[in-house]
Here is the input.
Amino acid sequence: MTAEELREQINARIFALETRVEPFTNIRDLRVPCDGYDITARAYTPEGIAPQATPQTGPQTTSQTVPQPLLVYVHGAAWIAGSLDTHDNLCRRLATRVPCVVLSVGYRLAPEHRFPAAIEDSYGALAWAVANTERLGIDPRRVAIGGDSAGGNIAAAVCLMARDRGSPAIGLQLLVNPALDFTAYDAKGFEESKQYREYYLKDPTDANKPYASPMLARDVAGLPPAFVITGDQDVLMPEGEAYVRRLRVAGVPANAYRQIGKGHQSGHFARATAEAEEAMDLCVAVLRAAYKRMAAGRMLATSNG
Here is the structure.
């Protein structure tokens, strides 16, 4: 099966899942510049938040509002599939229930654009968002990044990249069923993952690079606090939980939540189906608590300054 055929199959499987679509009206597709080219990102802004009018978006009716927290979301689907549309309902739910501004990243897909294109795109979208706080109506001191499956892999890599480059500051990495170690996929049971790896990486040796396999980073100190959701029937569970243990040893606050009786939820989580309700509720609770912590830390720093 070609990559294009596999992409169509994965996307069709996601869209076939039945769910209740979250009502949401304030959605804008934006062109985000990334080092000489543009990608598309989709901004979900809860009611009551008024982003600044721009030539691209036209005039808006605005009122004085408090800047809101930001979640940069990186969709999953094997690095070769998924889109802003496959994960639209998930982003609607998170934006409504947290609430927060969600910026969903339409990164370039493999194999047309191999590693590290998706990571550079996602990092570029994060940096752009933090540099355009008034346009998006966000507080740059309350920023989280999240992703599921392949998106969890990319989000964790972006955290490494942001630390290595010195910015932007990220207050939480929220990873759902993340793929974090490509070198593990030669073992029995990873046949499907091996195929995706071959489409994504330029060279087999890329599997050993930290931005491809965040679990293999030599040093994980200084990374954002993490919350990782796994499933006890998911082949990726061990690497997700091992990543949390590594972060803890390095002094990074990190927790894992293992769902019992759950496998790899990718499609169900993307569509926010009833099957993924437990994971969805966890994400909302964790994001709310993290943004509250970030706000408290900012106020403490201000009062002490």
Observations:
- The first strand starts at residue 27 and ends at 34.
- Strands lie at 27-34, 37-44, 68-74, 101-106, 138-148, 172-176, 226-231, 254-259.
- The CA atoms of residues 61 and 110 lie 40 Å apart.
- The two ends are 60 Å apart (CA to CA).
